[in-house]
Design brief:
The chain has one domain. Helix content is 50%, strand content 15%. It is built from 3 helices and 3 strands. A hairpin with a 2-residue loop joins β2 and β3.
Length: 72
């Protein structure tokens, strides 16, 4: 079995995404990213929306790879 370099799972809330280091500046921006740009959908947890941080980091990495591939 291959060893993973992935960080342990961290579940984060909407406020952390909007005010965090992910480039999301408002709730409406977050919803647009989910609806139109493939941003990971939330996990319903205890009646609130939560996200797996690894899914967000993977999404950001895919966006960067697509940008670099388009530039070639």
């Amino acid at each position: 079995m291959e060893e993973s370099t992935r960080k342990p799972r961290r579940i984060i809330g909407q406020k952390h995404i909007v005010k965090g280091p992910y480039g999301v500046d408002s709730l409406s921006h977050l919803l647009t990213l989910i609806r139109d740009h493939g941003f990971p959908a939330p996990i319903k947890y205890g009646g609130a929306n939560r996200w797996d941080e690894n899914e967000i980091l993977d999404w950001i990495e895919r966006q960067a790879e697509a940008r670099f591939a388009a530039a070639e």
